[in-house]
Amino acid sequence: MSGLPRDPFRAAVTGVGMVTAAGPDASRTWKAVLKGTPAGVGPHPALRGLPCDFAYTVDADVITPQLGVAACRLMDRFARFAVVAAREAVADAGLDSREWDGTRVGVVLGNAHGGLPFYDEQHAQLTATGSVSPKTPLLTPVTGATDSVTRDLHASGPGFTVATACSSGTHAIGTAHRLLRTGQCDIVVTGGAEAVICRLLIAGACRLKALSTRRDDPASASRPFDADRDGFVPGEGAGILVLEHPRHARARGARVLAHLSGYGAAMDPEATVAPTDDGAALERALRAALTDAGVGGAEVDHVNAHGTSTPMNDLVESRVLARVCGENPLITSSKGVTGHTLGAAGGIETALTVLALRDQVVPPTANLTSLDPCVRGRVVARTARSARLDCAVKTAMGFGGFAAALVLTRP
User: Fold this and answer.
1) Which CATH architecture is the domain 11-251 placed in?
2) pTM of the prediction?
């Protein structure tokens, strides 16, 4: 926080957009998450023969018509998700990208892996024919979603891609908060996008024993905080927010869904593929976010947890939340409905947290039938729970020791 104003800065969240396996837009994704019903999960042909041969996938038929075949040819799958979700978020905010001052609009998106489906396709083509598409260097970088959204929305302010593994989307939103706080932008389109149904990556994750092998029942395989959890299930999609400087939002009479009031980040150099037992990095990130927002841990009403359904992650995270926030917050993880979307998770799950504040309801944790007795905190299961929600937290962790936290408050 060095060099930044000490008073809390509350960026206005004025729009959300989502593309997930649970739904092609924010409304349908939110309805599925509230029901706690897994959607779009099943065997995937690209993963045939692997210990985890299933995934949460987006229906491509709902994406191509919105962009057109020609545009889709110039974007990898994750970039298409980002553009569709960004368009929805901008429309939800009541903005028109043809009318705004693009020099005051930034785009900050998180992505962990770049264009892996296109990599897979081109590797197969190279093996078979000795040649690849000249688009390969253009469609595969992690910057693809930011580039595509920037062009689609005519945004010419600051643009960044944040790549911090599974915390990428969360860090991207925190970075956007700081761009607004320092006055560099009036509007920032931010979140995360990912498409990682790639045989090479998933095979490696299987070797790490990070994935569920519940092949007989894929729909119940992702079960955060459950005593019978055995790993995460990969998913794909995008979650995008429109953040505005509060002065800009007030001047145009914008509807404010929530405020993004704090951001914290930390690293754990000892945590390569799993958090250390004490969760020290996540605790530092969470405490920093609360300090940034000017609120105490006891004031947190709701946490949308990282909750990956891996044995160690869920346990460590719950302990950190209990130490910092006590037993008050209602905790949920949406990964039983959406899968673990890696770099997109922070964008999707922050958008869901905004909607929880808007509707004053905490979604259930899908597939949670028997809470791990070692998990601490009030984890919501089976049915959504209405409650007074004034302050919510989104947490994230990623391979390599990355940790991040956001604080959102009711307007």
Assistant:
1) 3-Layer(aba) Sandwich (3.40)
2) 0.96
